[in-house]
Amino acid sequence: MGTLDVRPIPALQDNYIWLLRGLADPHAVAVVDPGVADPVMRVLSAEGLHLDAILLTHHHVDHVGGVVDLVAETGAAVFGPARERMPPVDVHGLAGGGRAPLPSLGLQFKVMAVPGHTAGHIAYFGHGAVFCGDTLFSAGCGRLFEGTATQMLASLDALADLPDPTRVFCGHEYTVANLRFAMVVEPGNSDIVDYVRRTEAQRAASLPTLPSTIGLEKRVNPFLRSRHENVRASAERHAGARLATPVEVFAEIRNWKDRF
Ligand code: ZN
Ligand code: FE
Q: Residue 247: what pLDDT?
């Protein structure tokens, strides 16, 4: 089985709408988190593609704003979190442990519940890829708008448990800014220094820094490293207090980043 063909459609300020090509029919495609319809419609018509499915990770408008227009234009099937308010179209509601079958594309994804950024946030895992919306960013994670630090850490732990080579497709291009913070948390981490060099070159050339991989994120992402001694020490220094548990460490670095 070949590698899943995925490419970014940049949208809005710094969102990526991920376009997935079918293994069964190369003209059948799906998109993840279309915050706007126009850039997707342009790609479909320029390349003679038909949009068969839309996968949604959470309810924020920069991820779902294009759904109504895309469904009206294409009739695509829509999958999204059962626990969140979705656009006014037929949505196959999904929860953790569920599946998103895309038969016309020859693809199927497992659904992971990854609450924290929003209460019902889900991720789609399959074919060596995970589409994680605003839960995990490269070198960062989503803000806790609706969930707790405990929930978010559990969600990030579940993502970190995926195989190291898993390609990570996030909802936003935030990598360079996230790494500025990661460097302050872990100034002695040479993987971060290397990654800064690489991603700054990519952005200077207007290239996406994504996808990342789970293996890389475990080396550079402070939010996946709450159990590492250096991250804990740094968080304790910032808090001016002893932090007894990984959740306390995670909550402290999330707070720190919110004000960074
Ligand atoms: Zn969001
Ligand atoms: Fe977002």
A: 98
- Which residues crowd ion ligand 2, with CB under 5 Å? 62, 134, 171
Instruction: Considering every ligand atom shown, identify the ligand nearest to the alpha carbon of residue 15 and give its number.
Output: 2
Alpha-carbon span 4 to 207, nearest angstrom: 19
In this structure, which residues have their CB less than 5 angstroms from ion ligand 1? 60, 134
State how far the Cα of 28 lies from the Cα of 48, in Å rounded to an integer: 9
Say if residue 168 is exposed, middle or buried (CB neighbours under 10 Å; 0-12, 13-18, 19+). Answer: buried
Amino acid at 248: E
CATH class of 6-258: alpha beta
Rounded distance from Cα 117 to ligand 1 centre (Å): 7
Which residue type, as a one-letter code, is found at position 215?
A: G
170 CA to centre of ligand 2 in angstroms: 9
How far apart are alpha carbons 214 and 35 in whole angstroms? 25
Cβ–Cβ < 8 Å for 120, 112: no
For residue 3, the model assigns a pLDDT of 80
Token pair, residue 108, equals 């199927």
The catalytic residue positions are 58, 60, 62-63, 117, 134, 172
Mean pLDDT by 10 residues, the chain (260 residues): 87 98 91 98 98 98 98 98 97 98 96 98 98 98 98 98 98 98 97 98 97 98 97 98 97 97
Q: How far is the CA of 188 from the centre of ligand 1 (A)?
A: 31
Q: Domain-by-domain residue ranges, the chain?
A: 6-258
pLDDT value at position 2?
Answer: 64
